[in-house]
Amino acid sequence: MVKILNITGDIKIGTQGPAVYQRKHGVQIRRMRQPKRAIASEKQIEHRQLYTSALAWRKSLTLPQRRFLDGYAISHWIVDDHKQPLPWHRLALKLYLEHIKYTLLYKPPPAPPLPYGIYDQLSDASTSYAFAYSGKWRAQTFTPEYSYYANNIQLSLKRKLTITGPFYVRLYLADINHKPTGAPLCEISRAPSTISETEIAWYSFTFDPILLTKGQEYVIQANLIGGGGATYIIIYLRQEAPFYPRGVMLNSTDSGSTWTVDDTKDLLFRVYGQPLPQAAGAHLISVRHTALKDIEHSRNGITIAKWQNMSSFDSEQWLDYLELTADPGDIITATTLAGISKEYRPF
Asked: What is the pTM assigned to this prediction?
């Protein structure tokens, strides 16, 4: 179907033949020749169902509601293309079929990334130490103050004499007793020959980034394969205040089968990483419809703001526009006077 404005054409309202229908103000509807579809598309079926629902809702309106719509269109200048107030039956269809429009008025620029660096540590120039060799393992727990991606652990080390076996560092989750639990999150080995025999230094153990969660305790476990009473890795520690406030040192004499907590010492360590991207900030959003009835703003499943009964068949003024701020991940649900709802999620 096409709509043609033909002011000088037929003035009689109604059917003007098999292909033309004359309306008011010289408007004609003319049928175009098109092949008929044997099977309606999903979009056509959806549109038919929507229009059928709109007709059913219009039919359900009471006589006072219909009179209210007639008066509201006149008093609030809701008009058609010819500046004529909409009759109640057309205004009712408009309320049902009109889309709820969400508009992003302002999106804040992305926050600058935080720098890569040390996000958990106990760094010191202490000369106190513990030995690590076959069967005698050491560990240190730590608890991040906020979530970040870690990819490097450093320990303060020195070597005693020649050692053939590798030196391992593993990262575990800690249980409620501060002991390592489950499979290691990562495992890194280093040849003892790369550790100095004469100088104390920080040595890196690098791995693929792992998300460390705020408030979760983790265990850095270090052990040497081989060695003994005369050959070992020296791991430096602190045994006087101030200690690391969110962790403890662990010792094992049976290759990690059992662990004992030593809260009078802490191994020196550093954990490098990259913090999670910062939230971009609040978005400014507008909601528009001829008759907005309810709007609900929720975050993480909790309703943080709600507007109810802003439009009704008794109100003198319908709400047709609202601005609000929302964070990425929030859900905004608007409902019209006709009961149609639509969600919006800021990205």
From this structure: 0.54
